């Protein structure tokens, strides 16, 4: 990979890291600020309400996927990526200054809700713009490797958030964290977004997009009409995302709460387990992405789905009784190794399904819909099962979602050898190569 390709990957990944830092710290710090926005009472109920607002952000993702995907296809990947980080910066500022229930009653919840809606809009477009940009910016035989940096950057954002949480937990009292210190990560996120905004203003457009004359002149590019011509691919994105997104959010954003609330680990220990597991998980992404460039995407996806279908229940059950740092870390790492089969390559797989003129929207909207239905609700579903006294039901829910995606992986064709330049010449009537098995 040349220097210019690495530069494109770095700029795209840096913005993705800040986006997901802001997205993740809401979930990881919710245990500290949940009571600040609701009346005192049931701690689990307040956490459920806070995570319900978290889920609202996911339901805004389809809107963001449509809006920013359209911008990405019509005005370029750079324009979409710059706008996403601007929205994320604004949402971080709103959360940082949101008044508590004691100060403004339910007015603080309204501010929090608006901030989450902006985050949903931003992340709904960020995923597709980043996936498209990283895939198009790489050499044909390095697309899996290059696109794996999407989850490297996403995980790096989570690690920074967790690292900051660990520092605050060890340097501040529990009272300070619940009172005001939970605002610190959102201030950090806003500052980081400002830096990335400057970097993205000077980023380079991908050659695949810049050189595609058809995408530049087609009046239907980036429209729902063009996407409907590729409806089979759009539904494929939803189906192959279903199992992966539930498993990913279970073992990343929900893991810390599960370890502290169910397994009985202290909050600092639970955070440290998540930090170490996520660091190892991050290092695996480029290795798995490079492997997919050699053997194909389907083998990794199938391995993930089989592992998630049959190992989720025993892993979550054993985690419940882990009791200490090392057993919890080993089980968490095993789960994330399985999830790597999906996370390392899902960006390029989806981008490889669509021609250039509809690629950003084609990835963004169906992926955002899948995340709204399954990813964004994962924590709420987990807490709902827990509140109902049947927490193990959530384990089977995760396994079932993975089983559905397994059927899709077994029936889809390989996408590794698809030529993005030739695919970019497809028309709105859907005459491009199909990736569904006949």
UniProtKB/TrEMBL annotation:
Question: What are the subcellular locations of this protein?
Answer: Cell membrane
- Matching PROSITE patterns, A to Z? MFS, SUGAR_TRANSPORT_1, SUGAR_TRANSPORT_2
Which residue numbers delimit the Major facilitator superfamily (MFS) profile domain? 8-416
Q: What is this protein called?
A: MFS transporter
Coiled-coil residues are: none
Species the sequence originates in:
Streptomyces lunalinharesii
One Pfam family hit: MFS_1
Cell membrane keyword on record: yes
């Amino acid at each position: 990979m040349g220097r210019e390709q690495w530069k494109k990957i770095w700029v795209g990944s840096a913005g993705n890291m800040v986006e997901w830092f802001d997205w993740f710290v809401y979930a990881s710090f919710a245990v500290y600020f949940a009571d600040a926005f609701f009346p005192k009472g049931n701690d689990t109920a307040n956490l459920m309400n806070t995570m319900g607002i978290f889920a609202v952000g996911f339901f805004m993702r389809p809107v963001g996927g449509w809006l920013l995907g359209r911008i990405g296809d019509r005005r370029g990947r750079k324009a979409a990526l710059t706008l996403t980080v601007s929205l994320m910066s604004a949402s971080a500022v709103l959360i940082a200054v949101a008044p508590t229930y004691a100060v403004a009653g339910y007015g603080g919840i309204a501010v929090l809700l608006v901030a989450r809606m902006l985050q949903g809009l931003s992340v709904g477009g960020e995923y597709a713009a980043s996936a498209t940009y990283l895939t198009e910016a790489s050499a044909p035989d390095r697309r899996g490797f290059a696109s794996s940096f999407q989850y490297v950057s996403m995980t790096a954002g989570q690690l920074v958030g967790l690292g900051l949480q660990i520092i605050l937990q060890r340097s501040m009292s529990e009272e300070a964290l619940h009172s005001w210190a939970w605002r610190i990560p959102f201030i950090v996120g806003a500052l980081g977004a400002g830096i990335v905004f400057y970097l993205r203003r000077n980023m380079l457009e991908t050659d695949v997009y810049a050189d595609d004359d058809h995408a530049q002149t087609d009046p239907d590019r980036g429209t729902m009409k063009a996407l409907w011509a590729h409806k089979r691919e759009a539904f494929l994105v939803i189906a192959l995302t279903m199992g992966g997104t539930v498993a990913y959010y279970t073992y990343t954003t929900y893991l810390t709460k599960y370890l502290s609330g169910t397994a009985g680990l202290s909050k600092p220990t639970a955070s440290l387990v998540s930090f170490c597991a996520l660091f190892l998980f991050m290092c695996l992404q480029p290795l798995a992405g490079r492997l997919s460039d050699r053997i194909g995407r389907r083998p990794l996806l199938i391995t993930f789905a089989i592992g998630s279908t049959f190992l989720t229940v025993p892993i979550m059950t054993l985690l419940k009784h882990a009791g200490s740092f090392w057993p919890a870390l080993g089980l968490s790492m095993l789960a994330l190794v399985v999830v790597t089969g999906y996370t390392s390559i899902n960006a390029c797989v989806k981008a490889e399904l669509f021609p250039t003129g509809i690629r950003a929207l084609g990835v963004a909207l169906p992926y955002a819909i899948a995340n709204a239905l399954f990813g964004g609700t994962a924590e709420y579903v987990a807490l709902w099962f827990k509140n109902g006294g049947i927490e193990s039901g959530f384990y089977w829910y995760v396994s079932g979602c993975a089983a559905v995606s397994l059927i899709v992986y077994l029936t889809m064709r390989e996408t590794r050898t698809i030529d993005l330049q030739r695919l970019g010449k497809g028309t709105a009537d859907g005459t491009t190569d199909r990736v569904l098995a006949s």
